[in-house]
Protein: Nicotinate-nucleotide--dimethylbenzimidazole phosphoribosyltransferase
Amino acid sequence: MLENTIAAIGPLDESAMTAARQLQARLTKPAGSLGALEELSVRLAGLAGSCPPPVPDRAAVAIFAGDHGVHAQRVSPWPQEVTGQMVANFLAGGAVVNAFARQAGASVTVIDVGVAAPLPVADVAGPDGAGTLHGAPEPAVPRLVSTPIRAGTRDMTVTAAMTRQEARTAVEVGIANAGKLVDAGAGILLTGDMGIANTTPAAALIAAFTGVDAAEATGRGTGVDDPTYQHKIEVVRAALRRHTPDPADPLGVLAAVGGLEHAALTGFVLGAAARRVPVLLDGVIAVSAALAAAAFAPDSVAAMVAGHRSAEPGATVALRRLGLTPLIDLGLRLGEGTGALLALPVVTGAVRVLHEVATFDSAGVAEK
Ligand SMILES: Cc1cc2ncn([C@H]3O[C@H](COP(=O)(O)O)[C@@H](O)[C@H]3O)c2cc1C
Ligand SMILES: O=C(O)c1cccnc1
Structure:
């Protein structure tokens, strides 16, 4: 499945992009006045192979959840059980991602690729547990997809986080879920993540794929103090020294220093690119996975839209390498898919312009 997906990923359609540029020039606004939205609309036309491209409606956020053996190195102040507890919170509709998904009208799917604790989902009451909704579209009930690959990764400072086969299975779970959501009608996919300690493998992936030092790729995650931050950098450095991952072998990099949700997100991005559907990236976990996707298939970058600039320094390193400019920059450092959801109306707006705005000719507006 991985090889077929990579083979299906191709470049943008130049003629659709030319048509979109020409249409932008005829719309009733000064040329270039929509800034980054104009180039985004052109790129989405190239991705869809049509002008205008479809409005990216029926947005779907996929939250890949997993645990991390490297948690044993005390790289996060939070106990590992929080991963499963937050999954239950997502399913009950009570997390920040749920509030933003209701606002954006996006569906929420949680995919368990390796949460260590048994999920306490039997107690989940449903979306009404989230309290009163104010004027939001009726929320789709968050769904759980249960495809655990192992009960968390191994500790990457001791051994490879995953076998190559486990990493491949996780990538393929991501591809399969992208395909299922697109088949169900999603016009845009959004990345989400949950996994206590997952900013540590994200930093290791970013250092491995870009070659920056561990100190540049590593951030404070949920908010570690100064001594823990220095220790976290050393943990990332030790893992890289142990495995010397080869950036030309993305499956090997994911297996050595990645996480189950990072690998699944890699597949999710590849799956979106293969189906020529845009994938809106969230924060540092998403962009670390996007680097792996770009290593598998350089053309997959054409399907990626950077939702926001995470406060994690590694995110900026990764975005620079991918050549992506984030749509919003609000100092967020939460994950879950929250930054991607906030950026969704920007993407929808960029495409809606091509569908709905009058031309100088049709509206009888004089040109300069
Ligand atoms: C209550 C809570 C909700 C979260 N939602 C996302 N994350 C985020 O924080 C975690 C990564 O940070 P670190 O590497 O420092 O552990 C991930 O689970 C990520 O999704 C959360 C973290 C917590 C504690
Ligand atoms: O950028 C993110 O997505 C992020 C940052 C800190 C903690 N968890 C996620």
Observations:
- Strands lie at 60-66, 107-114, 143-146, 189-194, 279-281, 304-306.
- The longest strand covers residues 107-114.
